[in-house]
Design brief:
heterotrimer, A alpha+beta (281), B alpha+beta (157), C alpha+beta (698), B: 157 residues, alpha+beta, five-stranded mixed sheet, 5 strands, 16% strand, globular, C: 698 residues, Aldehyde Oxidoreductase, domain 3, Aldehyde Oxidoreductase, domain 4, seven-stranded mixed sheet, six-stranded mixed sheet, 28% helix
Chain lengths: 281, 157, 698
């Protein structure tokens, strides 16, 4: 029987984490299923477990200067219903899982799980989210694209805990999100696409595109996006084929029990084309 | 083992239990309350739905540690209320029950919806029930029942 | 007296809604222990060694050596072992049970059991037929010799999983020196007979009791007999109550599925562009053993003419043995596979000939008096034209079909015509089942219905009581229908084949009418009724010729879809159906069957994907096996048109399967119209649609 702890404060938790490498459980929506053994038997955790869902200190949801701070234990449903959250993230959460799971799940859990098919991650990559880690020795702020290094792999040290996710308050002018799942609700994505843009004086001042469930991590090409800044709508339209060709080279999805590489790739590029049409219309 | 204190169907419970034990197992095995069902063990089917602080959750995913300090309502508790009676009558009248295995979960999910949105549209009802699978009814009669309950129970939610 | 059709409250609704109704896993027995199934981890080979660690007190293995009777599950063939002794024929095949009082301990011991195999390459090709049938009608395939043109294609259908919300589960316990099996099942007497064979005991040494069943759809027709035998041997050995209840992740990979099929259809066409003959070659993947596959094949073959009449037919069928999980009963039982094929085929023939598919299909629609595929006769009125007209009107079919066919908007509307033979195929009722029902009246004039029919959600606890109350003209409260217990109910046959209301209800109806005639107030009375084959139903089991069924129900399904151009995802936006099921015993019960059946049938056509790889199923849980949610289902309208069947109670015919069998071709046709490509394979997933658009045939 593994050790299980339910710390009452963040400090208590961080102190404990200096002694052991705990499995950190927030809502339990991933870990309770991944470690499920059989009905009637306690889940089969392989390492000591720490339960965090009751840490009140990690439940803040507020704006501080030019950042939205989402505490690690705020549930997805609470985030979805909040007026301070960017629309694209709300939209992404609305299409995730089911009400029963959204009432338990957290962004910190999604990030920690680092699933290639994690829908909220697409939103976080698009919004340039920053992961706030804390340990007894201090804090680290790590951009999401540096935080996740592969499926289930993050740069978190065993004595660190995600305490919050920070998102810049700058809301894009327009967003477009498409989740492609096997059915219209309560499903794991085959692939997803998220895009945001803003324009001023007929010029694109901001354009960001991200693909989910197409690779071990979310795909976003920031330097390519930069190259599109300053173009007019007509300019983007003229470059439509080049943009699609660029991502055609970048995207290399796989076959699995949910879908095929061919379908994923063709569909992802079709959604990209759809987004470009949206920008240029 | 840990001491977990919480409220179950309006009654305070202090229980010495494994903090990783699924709430579903605690209800069905420790307390022999069989109204909440197990259909898949992985949060997909919603047969295990209970209310946690008034909101629908899949009890197969909730460790007892996360129940501490919260309020759990199961079908056994909810069925004592006026709102349940309205839902029950609507489910009966609309033919929303066939094999019945998904039904307690549907009732719980409906209550969770109506508490937040007393007069939901059809698409809002479908969305709210999207985590509760039914294989017998094709859902339409269940959706009709929730609509009817929201109308008949006007003022209760 | 108002029409019996008028809806009443389902008698078990409130107990289910409130969570009070008990399903097998809700029961607890004093001193009970758990059983865990130890399964093969290869798809084909021989077991060379089994090593079990030393077992603590109270724990034991239960295997072949413990079987007092015969080591096979009595169903039709004797090729399914209760426990496999040495030969492994599919991944997950049960080898033994491990029993004991603590599940966690059982799990730990199971992980320490070592089984050594001599592994062989599994056969996954369809080249080892275990069952073969053939029949012909008229001149068979002779017209092909003089045909002016021919057209052929191959149609493919995939697995379908029943996905009942309540998983498989049984509890066994000793009662004196008898053994009782109780739990989730469709056929108490199938189980009882299997137990007698396996335990080698007398009829009165076993008892089977149904508990509330959380859905079945055929998945609990024959599979529970295997579990029951294993469980009974465990009870026999341990002399304690034993629970054998599957978690979903165990249930899905090892229980029976709908047979995947490959059906080749050919049409011989004359100079006048008329179909003069149809040749059908039906292939089903039976999995590792035969089970009910022979009957599934028969039903599929018999359905080869669909809702049509063709003058000459040659139909062959094979069930292939592969090293995969044995396939079995699922609502429709061979008909969905065939009806998809023939419905798509006749449309493709019309296109090939440059003719309007609707006109073409209407031309071949079966009429009263026509000869069936097996040279029987459609004796009763066929109201397909009325069903078609009504469904088309309600859905605005013609206008939409015109716009969608001409446009490029990726929208489509599809219509399927179909039938379903009611009752057991051929002479099964008379020669195998020999159904019997009993009514018992007590001194207080309460009437007990004693039949083995199981309510698995289709509402017979309500409709049977309603039937009897209506005939006897007594209140519902005076009619009792308890969950079937083989100690008290005669064998009225299995709850399958859409036979329950028509056949069993028909017997109950006759019995009730006799009781009414002979009614003696405040006196105990017992009446029985036995099945009599209507003498006009003549069937030759050797030649597969004659009247395969005593009656047929008919239907039309229309499905409208929108397809997303970028993602190729299909969105059903409307479903309309009209059915002839004789007469509805309860309006709302029938509506429930209509809604639920078409949800399964349509999803079979576009949504539900189950694949096999190296002998193992890839989709093993409800996360990966996709069934519709409430968001996926569009507005669904259904209606029935009365066409009472003389031999059915109040004119009722079979309804349970009819509402599923036409869904797949309806949505497949809608998709064809939307993407302007021929569809020959289901499920029509977005991946397939993408491929068809890029590479498919117009």
């Amino acid at each position: 029987m593994v050790k299980q702890v339910i710390p009452e404060t963040l400090k208590e938790a961080l102190k404990l984490m200096q002694q052991e490498d705990y499995i950190l459980v927030s809502g339990g929506t991933d870990l309770m299923v991944q470690n499920y053994s059989e009905s009637g038997i306690v889940p089969d955790f392989k390492r000591p477990v720490m339960y965090l869902a009751n840490l009140e200190e990690l439940k803040q949801l507020k704006v501080e200067k030019d950042e939205i701070i989402i505490g690690a234990e705020v549930t997805l449903e609470t985030i979805r219903q909040s007026s301070i959250i960017p629309d694209i993230l709300k939209e992404i959460i609305s299409e995730m899982a089911s009400p029963g799971i959204r009432n338990l799940g957290t962004l910190s859990g999604n990030i920690g799980n680092a699933s290639p098919a994690g829908d909220s991650l697409v939103g976080l990559y698009l919004l340039d989210a920053i992961v706030e880690l804390e340990s007894m020795t201090g804090k680290r702020l790590i951009p999401i694209e540096d935080y996740i290094t592969g499926p289930r792999k993050t740069v978190r040290h065993s004595d660190e805990m995600i305490v919050a996710v920070r998102i810049p308050t700058r809301e894009p002018e327009c967003h477009h999100y498409r989740k492609v799942g096997p059915r219209r609700a309560n499903a794991i994505s085959k692939l997803s696409f998220g895009g945001v843009f803003s324009h001023e004086n007929s010029m694109i001042i901001d354009v960001r595109m991200a693909f989910g469930a197409m690779a071990p991590v979310v795909i976003r090409d920031k330097s390519f996006e930069k190259s599109l800044i300053g173009l007019s709508k007509a300019g983007i339209k003229a470059k439509k084929k080049a943009i699609i060709d660029h991502y055609r080279m970048l995207l290399a999805p796989i076959d699995d029990q949910r879908s095929t590489a061919v379908y994923r790739k063709k569909t992802a590029l079709a959604l990209l084309a759809e987004f470009i049409d949206l920008i240029t219309d | 083992m840990a001491e977990i204190e919480f409220i179950l169907n309006h009654q305070k419970i202090v229980s010495e239990t494994d903090p990783s034990l699924r709430l579903l197992d605690y209800l069905r095995n420790t307390l022999a309350m069989s109204g909440t069902k197990e259909g898949c063990g992985e949060g997909e089917c919603g047969a295990c739905s209970v209310l946690l602080d008034g909101k629908v959750v899949n009890s197969c995913m909730v460790p007892m540690a996360n129940v501490a300090g919260h309020e759990v309502t199961t079908i056994e508790g909810f069925r004592e209320t006026k709102r349940y009676k309205i839902l029950e009558q609507a489910f009966v009248q609309c033919g929303a029950v066939q094999c019945g295995f998904c039904t307690p979960g549907m009732i719980i999910a409906s209550e969770s919806l109506l508490r937040q949105n007393p007069h939901p549209s059809e698409s809002e009802i479908r969305e709210a029930l999207s985590g509760n699978l039914c294989r017998c009814t094709g859902y339409n009669m269940i959706v009709d029942a929730v609509k009817k309950a929201s109308e008949d129970g006007d003022g209760l939610w | 007296m108002s029409d019996i059709n008028k809806t009443i409250e389902r008698v078990d609704a409130r107990e289910k809604i409130s969570g009070i109704a008990k399903y097998v896993d809700d029961l607890k027995m004093e001193g009970e222990i758990y059983a865990k199934t130890i399964r093969a981890t290869i798809a084909k080979g021989k077991i060379t060694d089994i090593s079990v660690p030393p077992l603590p007190e109270g724990y034991a293995t239960v295997g072949v050596k413990d079987i007092p009777g015969k080591n096979f599950v009595k169903i039709i063939f004797d090729d399914q072992p209760v426990f496999t002794e040495s030969e492994v024929t599919y991944f997950g095949e049960p080898i033994m049970l491990l029993v004991g009082p603590d599940k966690a301990v059982l799990r730990k011991i199971a992980n320490e059991i070592r089984i050594a195999y001599k592994e062989e390459k599994p056969n996954l090709e369809w080249d080892d037929p275990m069952i073969s049938y053939h029949f012909s009608k008229g001149d068979g395939d002779q017209p092909f010799q003089t045909a002016s043109k021919t057209f052929s294609d191959v149609y493919i259908t995939g697995y379908q999983e029943q996905a009942y919300l309540e998983t498989q589960g049984l509890i066994g316990y000793p009662e004196g020196n008898r053994i009782v099996i109780t739990g989730s099942m469709q056929c108490p007497y199938y189980i009882k007979n299997a137990l007698i064979n396996c335990l080698g005991c007398k009829d009165d040494m076993v008892r089977v009791i149904q508990q509330t069943v959380g859905g079945a759809f055929g998945g609990k027709e024959e599979f529970p007999s295997l579990m029951a035998c294993q469980l009974a041997v465990a009870v026999y050995k341990m002399k304690k109550p034993v629970r054998l209840i599957y978690d979903r992740k165990e249930d899905m990979p090892v229980t029976t599925k709908r047979h995947p099929s490959r059906i080749r259809l050919e049409a011989a066409i004359n100079k006048k562009n008329e179909i003069t003959a149809i040749r059908a070659a039906v292939g089903l993947d039976g999995g590792a053993n035969a089970g009910l596959s022979g009957v599934v094949l028969q039903r599929a073959m018999i359905a080869s003419s669909g809702a049509y009449t063709f003058p000459n037919m040659d139909v062959t069928g094979r069930v292939y043995r592969t090293n995969t999980v044995p396939n079995g009963a699922f609502r429709g039982f061979g008909a969905p596979q065939m009806l998809f094929s023939i419905e798509m085929f006749i449309g493709h023939v019309a296109k090939f000939l440059g003719l309007d598919p609707f006109e073409f299909r209407m031309k071949y629609l079966a009429k009263q008096g026509d000869k069936t595929s097996t040279s029987g006769t459609f004796r009763d009125p066929i109201i397909m034209p009325e069903l078609i007209g009504k469904a088309m009107k309600e859905s605005d079919y013609l206008r939409k079909a015109q716009i969608y066919s001409a446009g490029n908007g990726y929208q489509g509307i599809g219509m399927s015509f179909f039938l379903h033979g009611c009752g057991f195929t051929g002479s099964g009722e008379a020669t195998h089942i020999k159904a019997r029902v009993r009514l018992e009246k007590d001194e207080n004039d309460n009437v007990r219905i004693l039949i083995a029919a199981v309510d698995m959600g289709q509402g017979i606890r309500t409709t049977m009581r309603k039937l009897v109350a209506s005939i006897l003209e007594i209140p519902m409260e005076k009619v009792i229908f308890d969950l079937p217990d083989t100690d008290f109910v005669p064998d009225s046959g299995p709850t399958v084949a859409s036979r329950t209301m028509m056949i069993v209800g028909g017997l109950v109806d006759r019995c009730a009418r006799k009781l009414k005639e002979k009614w003696l107030a405040n006196e105990k009375q017992i009446l029985e009724e036995n099945f009599q084959q209507p003498e006009y139903v003549k069937w030759d089991e050797e030649k597969l010729a004659g009247d395969a069924y005593p009656a047929y129900s008919w239907g039309v399904n229309i499905v409208e879809v929108e397809i997303d151009k970028a993602t190729c995802q299909v969105k059903p936006i409307g479903i309309w159906s009209e059915y002839d099921l004789g007469h509805a015993i309860d309006e709302m019960v029938i509506k429930g069957q209509c809604d639920g059946g078409i949800a399964q049938g349509v999803a079979y056509g576009y949504l539900e994907v189950m694949e096999q790889k190296d002998g193992r199923l890839r989709q093993k849980n409800l996360t990966d096996y996709i069934i519709p949610t409430a968001v996926d289902m569009p507005p669904t309208m259904s209606g029935v048109i009365d066409n009472p069947f003389a031999l059915g109670p109040y004119g009722a015919k079979g309804a349970g399967e009819l509402t599923l069998v036409g869904g797949a071709p309806a949505i497949a046709k809608a998709i064809e119209m939307a993407i302007k490509r021929n569809v020959t394979e289901i499920p029509v997933t977005p991946e397939k649609i993408r491929e068809l658009i890029d590479n498919g045939r117009n």
